[in-house]
Amino acid sequence: MTRGFYIGRFQPYHNGHHNVVQSIAEDVDELVLGIGSAGDSHSQHDPFTAGERIMMITKSLVDSDLVTYAVPIEDLDRNSVWVSHVQSMSPDFDVAYSNNPLVIQLFKEAGVEVHQSPMFNRHVLEGTEVRERMIDGKDWERLVPDPVVDVIGEIDGIERIQRVSDSDSNGE
Ligand code: ATP
Ligand code: MG
């Protein structure tokens, strides 16, 4: 039995993340999805709460054979103990998957095996691009799994990200 760990902010959970999860699923029996910056929400960079991101992930993976656990991970401004912080919040895992150089370095220093995953269509499958399209009223829906479109509709997510991205205005 192998259990993996994959961390992201998932703002929102998009098809790049979904492809990564599907490729990790070929290697592991179970996967922990760490929801990074879990305490952040209602900003242009981090519009959705940890709970909303859990809904996106859970509903997108409901038909998958993989056993998954979504675990919120709050930011800790102390990289030297970040891996212990992650481990304290997560089911035990055998291998971490990341392409982020800092995350890779921290796990390796802590003796955790790290695998890199391939990048999928990164020029459009990127959270920043999805959020920009949401703010600009452009087509974002085909960049995310269908259940994510439903969750964002249910929480009025487009109205939220557009409002919190507006600059202060005196109405002139
Ligand atoms: P943002 O622009 O908000 O940083 P992001 O797409 O980088 O969004 P994260 O939540 O930061 O999303 O991503 C978590 C991890 O998923 C990162 O380590 C990133 O390398 C990986 N990832 C993101 N998009 C893709 C993709 N298209 N293909 C493969 N991996 C991806
Ligand atoms: Mg990123």
**Domains, number:** 1
What is the molecular shape? Answer: globular
CATH top-level class:
Alpha Beta
Q: Please give the order of strands in the largest beta sheet.
A: 3-2-1-4-5
Alpha carbon gap, first and last residue: 62 Å
The number of helical runs is 7
Helix content percent band: 25-40%
Number of strands: 5
Main sheet? Answer: 5 strands, parallel
Secondary-structure-based class equals: alpha/beta
Give helix and strand order, one letter per element, not per position.
Answer: EHEHEHEHEHHH
Q: Which segments are poorly predicted (pLDDT under 50) over 5 or more consecutive residues?
A: none
The CATH homologous superfamily: HUPs
Could you describe the 3D structure shown?
With 172 residues, the chain is of the alpha/beta class. The chain has a single domain (3-165), classed as 3-Layer(aba) Sandwich (Rossmann fold). It contains seven helices and five strands; from the N terminus they run E-H-E-H-E-H-E-H-E-H-H-H. It has helices spanning 15-24, 50-60, 82-89, 101-109, 127-136, 146-154, 157-165; strands at residues 3-8, 30-35, 67-72, 95-97, 113-115. Strands 3-2-1-4-5 form a five-stranded parallel sheet, with helices on both faces. Helix 2 packs antiparallel against helix 6. It is globular. The termini are far apart. The mean pLDDT is 96. The structure holds adenosine-5'-triphosphate and magnesium ion (MG). Residues 8-11, 16-17, 20, 98-100, 117, 119-122, 125-128 line the site of adenosine-5'-triphosphate.
